[in-house]
Design brief:
The protein is α/β, with parallel strands linked by helices and about 375 residues long. It folds into 3 domains: about 130 residues, ATPase, nucleotide binding domain (Nucleotidyltransferase, domain 5); about 90 residues; about 120 residues, no CATH class. The chain contains 13 helices and 7 strands. The protein has a 5-stranded mixed beta sheet, sandwiched between helices. A two-stranded antiparallel ribbon has the order 6-7. Helix 5 runs antiparallel to helix 7 and helix 9 packs across helix 11. The two termini are about 45 Å apart. The model has no long low-confidence stretch (mean pLDDT about 90). GO terms for molecular function: DNA binding; transposase activity. This is Transposase.
């Protein structure tokens, strides 16, 4: 229990079960055991405010006391616009982390909007009473913080599209016995000269499909360059901005490029963490303990955090061995792994990624340079 606990009998608890077509609003009123359920059209904020006001008026007429509202809904595809809308109207709102809510572990359990809404009411009531283990609440980013993530996330999708197109071109050519992909700079000349494994020219329809794939690839590459230019412009827009300063500091480390620095700053380091365990847990690279009876060991990582940041840290850990071989972290990895390969090496790189994340966090927050790190004077454009 915490010191700032709230008695559920002194507030009106609201849970909103969101869906594409309708919203189910469940309300727990003081002194009333059975929750009140009300359906409204999805996105109808006017009807939502009207219903919430009617709940307050009903309690006021019955008790003579004006009580505040505490709303909640699960984080999902609707984003955070509803949270900002409710907050702007003076309503306290909480965004629940869905996977943190305990559910019945039967193989087959009932699943309805009513049960979900009533479950959120119980969870929020326990949370308000001070039970912080009842569920986890999402830290809602500001609109500027949310918008700053758009650039590197769009770049990620464009790079994936680029790889899909290149793999498709390679696969089509491979079916004809051609193992070398034509260059984009001399595409027409290379395709005219290429021959299939049995000595034929490319069929007309296959040639047309390859030309369309080539045009899609060129457009995708242009979009990637455009997004990268926008990313660099945003990173240099305001030198006094804290996020821009962290990006610039990370780019000074050899092996950390503009994209890695932007992803780590916009996805992780924009938040405040109390300790290194919170940091590793947020990224999802903290080992899960298993203690029962005489057994006490760590299991594999949770993978419950930010998947984009986790993937970036694993990639950066591999690059760290190449670009920072003299650092203490690289030496620790070599001493720990030695000549071993395969699964042992992959497990060790995750542990190194966790150590590297903590070292970079201390670097951007407190200016503590990781031991043995090579700091460059000119920033790189991309790694």
């Amino acid at each position: 229990m915490t010191s700032n606990a709230i008695d559920p009998e002194n507030v009106i608890i609201i849970a909103i079960e969101l869906s594409r077509s309708t919203w189910l609003v469940a309300a727990r009123l003081p002194g009333v055991e059975k929750p009140r359920l009300h359906k409204i059209d999805a996105g109808d904020t006017a009807a939502l405010l009207s219903h919430l006001s009617s709940m307050q008026a009903r309690v006021l007429s019955r008790t003579g006391v004006a009580l505040g509202l505490h709303c909640c809904f699960e984080a999902g595809r609707d984003g955070f616009w509803l949270h900002r809308f409710l907050t702007s109207h003076g309503i306290v709102n909480h965004v629940l982390e869905p996977t943190s809510i305990l559910v019945n572990r039967r193989a087959r359990r009932a699943k309805t909007d009513r049960l979900d809404a009533e479950g959120m009411l119980r969870v929020l009531a326990a949370y308000l009473q001070g039970d912080r283990q009842a569920c986890s609440m999402v830290r809602v980013p500001t609109p500027d913080e949310e918008d700053a993530k758009r650039i590197h996330r769009e770049r990620e999708h464009l790079v994936q599209e680029k790889l899909r197109i290149e793999n498709r071109v390679q696969a089509l050519l491979f079916t004809q016995g051609i193992h070398k992909r034509p260059s984009l700079r001399s595409w027409d000349r290379d395709l005219a000269a290429v021959r299939t494994g049995d000595g034929r020219e490319l069929a007309c329809h296959l040639r047309a499909e390859l030309d369309r794939l080539r045009r899609r690839l060129v457009v995708t590459l242009e979009l990637i360059r455009e997004v990268e230019a926008e990313r660099d412009e945003a990173a240099n827009a305001d030198p006094t901005d804290q996020a821009c300063g962290k990006i610039a500091s990370l780019c000074l480390i050899r092996g950390v490029g503009a994209n890695f620095a932007a992803v780590l700053t916009r996805e992780v380091f924009y938040r405040s963490f109390g300790n290194r365990r919170q940091l590793a847990s947020y990224v999802g690279i903290a080992p899960m303990p298993f203690q029962s009876g005489g057994m006490d060991r760590d299991r594999r990582i949770s993978r419950a955090g930010n998947p984009r940041a986790r993937t970036t840290m694993i990639q950066l850990a591999w690059l760290w061995l190449r670009y920072q071989p003299g650092s203490d972290l690289a030496k620790w990895f070599r001493d720990r792994v030695g000549t071993m390969t395969g699964r042992t090496r992959r497990i060790a790189i995750v542990a190194m990624a966790r150590k590297l994340l903590i070292a970079l966090w201390r670097y951007v927050e407190d200016g503590v340079v990781p031991a043995g790190v090579d700091i460059r004077t000119e920033t790189a454009t991309e790694v």
